[in-house]
Amino acid sequence: MSQHITDTTQLKCDKGTSPTPLTVTSQSFMSIDGKLQATEEDKQPNTNIKPFGMCSVLRSSCTPAPIKWDNTSDFKIEDKKELLDSSTCQCSVGGQISVVKSAQNFVEE
């Protein structure tokens, strides 16, 4: 089952060389384990999503150019859909941004 993601969740781009943490700025009151929950509006380059090292498409710095998050939750925070660990975001340069590892501490049962 998909899990909601939060601030500092590691993201990767399939055309970049290194992961980067997500910075949540789209809302300020819904949190899990003290970390703000991410929404589909957390897609601003260099604000929410930092560069991914070198880009194999551009052969230069992998500055993200996110278009829109897909595979989001049906649940909304202030009319913005929550992001899940299965959410992906297409980059206008050609890569796909996805979750490497959630920042949450999941309890195994």
UniProtKB/TrEMBL annotation:
Residue segments, region Disordered: 1-21
Pfam families for the chain: DUF4280 (PF14107)
InterPro entries: DUF4280
Protein name according to UniProt: DUF4280 domain-containing protein
Organism, as annotated: Chryseobacterium vrystaatense
Source lineage: Bacteria, Pseudomonadati, Bacteroidota, Flavobacteriia, Flavobacteriales
